[in-house]
Amino acid sequence: MPATTDNLGRHAGGYFGGGGLIWSYVDESVEGSAEGLGGQLRGGYRFNPFFGFETRFSAGGSGTLEGIEVQLNRALQFLATLSIPASERLRFGGYAGLSAGELEFSSSGFTGREADTGVSFGSFFEYGDPDGWAFYGDLGILQWGSVQGTGYMVAGLSVGALYRF
After folding, report:
1. Is CATH 1.10.287 the right assignment for the domain spanning 1-97+122-140?
2. pTM, two decimal places
3. Residues 85, 73: contact at Cβ < 8 Å?
């Protein structure tokens, strides 16, 4: 069924969910990347069918980059969302906001941590019941700068389920 003004209001309201996350760490000062598998929790509120806010917490997983183990200890995102309902059950959108996180680096018995803040942005889709369960998928970037002056980012692909209420 096409999106109409009568059924678009059903997309307003709160939601929470969780799923899996595949992330990739990329540092401007080093060639290559480290990939890991983690988890993600999210919750938010849509003010109307188009605009909302969302908070995400991601953690877990480790990968190796040039002999150094990189672990995502945590990432917290505060996002504004813009979405367009394509139908009663399907919506596409984008998001942007602020992020904070902590990465851990381990090599030869030495461990270091780096916490930083930056920006987040990405795109998503949701498919499901506007008043109940839905599946989501998104591709996002957390762009951070490091204390050493080089930039780095964590890119993530996440899939999961959420409940709208």
Report:
1. no
2. 0.86
3. no
